[in-house]
């Protein structure tokens, strides 16, 4: 493919996405699919390198138009895998930390992934690499190191998009007291090559990069293309009314539904969302005095700790016209 620039023909790059998992309903997968659609609309060729794929209609549709998906089992981000659990414990858990895990398991796995990545980059003639969210240790870490190795070796133009940092999950990673060996190896995933453009999803995440000496960061928020029919399919008014009844558990035309497509964990700051909805509600009640708002939290409760859920419930309880709905089970049953 070629692109006309200032009257000259220039080849368009082939874009290679490197992402730990693809095709599911998690935020990373959904946002990657959004970026892929943008690249495809520009006429670019796109291929995917991943550790895990979920079979879904949209991913199959992309494969039908030439997008390929290379699955590398070594980079499978399954958090229930005993080997991943053991590696995590030896890297992060107080009382079980063992610096030998870096040389014994982590770096060998990273080198093996890098070998596969090099072959894939060459075979697919990748000219632009898009590395998605390798700032977080555990199952992203070996793959993140592999990406950094290949980028630094070959100076491939790269977009590195990071939005999940270990010191943002202090209760899980105990980052402030972690081993120097772990801290050193994690820092390798923050790519500093001149060929890398770093992207953060908000200014808070940009500050995390700055704290590591990376200041040239572009902020591009997560978005949903509401005009794309593959994202927002039109449904009949009858179906919409049925879905509202399923979500709310009642017929209630005075209640507005605010979508919160996240897990109910504290770092998602749903408490701030509740305060924002209260301001929205004040505006709605100028014209609709009986208006209420239901915040629909779409993802599972499995990651939510009891104390986090209690804090969220307290925040909602202070706003009597705002209710919380944990909709994962309701939506799953409705989809079935």
Describe the overall structure.
- With 336 residues, this protein is α/β, with parallel strands linked by helices.
- Helix content is 42%, strand content 20%.
- It contains 12 helices and 12 strands.
- The protein has a 7-stranded parallel sheet, sandwiched between helices. It has a 3-stranded parallel sheet with strand order 10-11-12, sandwiched between helices. The protein has a two-stranded antiparallel sheet with strand order 1-2.
- Helix 4 crosses helix 5 and helix 10 (270-284) packs parallel to helix 11 (306-317).
- It is globular and about 60 Å long.
- The two termini are 42 Å apart.
- The model is unreliable at 1-9 (pLDDT under 50).
In short:
The chain is an alpha/beta fold and 336 residues long. It is built from 12 helices and 12 strands. The strands form 3 sheets. The chain has a 7-stranded parallel beta sheet, sandwiched between helices.
